[in-house]
Each structure stands twice: as C-alpha cells, then as structure tokens.
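Customer escalation, tier 2.

The customer says the design service returned an amino acid string that "doesn't look like it belongs to this structure." They asked us to rerun it and document both sides in this ticket. The original structure tokens are below, unchanged.
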C-alpha cells in the first residue's frame, strides 16, 4: 500500500469515460482515487454520491475523482444509468491488479475494500484513508483538507 510521500503505481484500465491512465490524470490535476467494493450496494452508492455531490468543489480545488472497483465495465455503466450518471469515471479493475497494488484487496481476494487516496500532480500520495467509511463526514473533510481547502 503506497503511503503518504510515496509515488503511486500507475495503471491503464477501461472506464465509463474510455481508457484511463492514472498518470495522465494526475499530470494535470490532483486526484481523489476512490476504491469502492461493489456497484449499487448501499455503502458504495453513498460513497460515490458524496463525491458526486461535492464534485464542483473538488474541481474548484484542482482535482479529479477516479473511482475504482473490480466490477465489469457493463456493471459500472448499468450502475451509472441507475443513478443518473457520475461526472467522473468509474474504472473497471476486473483482474484486481490495481486493488492488489494499492493494498486494498479484500481478505477473500474477490473485491476491493473502500479506501481513498489523494494524489498530487507528481503522482505522490498526500493523504490516504485505508478504511474509508462513507458515513463519516470527518473522512470526507480530510479529503478536502488534503486538496487544499482551508477550514
């Protein structure tokens, strides 16, 4: 698991917005890399809804959200369609390589757990929440502080 101050593993995977290469995103903006467990589950829906609701603020802070789960691209698209879309890409890590590289693969090896990394424009972790709880507003506030929001 990359820690604060360490470079993140790069990846290129399919997303709901086409092929996504992480390094191409963080070269232009900070990144909120949000791992979630499964499409259309209550806690994961809540996690992504909070980033969707706060997306204008995240963009004002010079950042982009990239959401990752092991679900297929078809599953991601159906999930997006059910909730009226997301302004950020949902990335399909169907081979679980990214979850493994980031240390967020579940104990049974079938899913990723919910975790959030804030990555700067050099590809370095500036904040990590290894056990993200969508119902905890303090963790979302931590993300905003890491992006430079002064509270």
């Amino acid at each position: 698991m990359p820690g604060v101050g360490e470079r993140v593993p790069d990846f290129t995977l399919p997303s709901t917005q086409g092929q996504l290469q992480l390094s191409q995103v963080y070269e232009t903006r900070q990144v909120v890399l949000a791992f979630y467990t499964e499409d259309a589950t209550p806690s994961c829906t809540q996690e992504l809804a909070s980033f969707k609701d706060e997306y204008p603020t995240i963009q004002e802070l010079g950042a982009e959200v990239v959401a990752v789960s092991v679900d297929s691209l078809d599953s991601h698209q159906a999930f997006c369609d059910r909730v009226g879309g997301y302004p950020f890409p949902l990335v399909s890590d169907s081979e679980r390589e990214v979850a493994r590289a980031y240390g967020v693969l579940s104990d049974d090896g079938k899913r990723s757990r919910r975790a959030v990394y804030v990555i700067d424009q050099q590809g370095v972790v500036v904040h990590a929440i290894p056990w993200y709880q969508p119902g905890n507003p303090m963790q979302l506030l931590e993300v905003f502080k890491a992006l430079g929001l002064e509270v």
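Tier 2 assessment: The sequence is consistent with the input. The chain has a mean pLDDT of 95. The longest helix spans residues 42-53. Sent an explanation to the customer and offered a walkthrough call.
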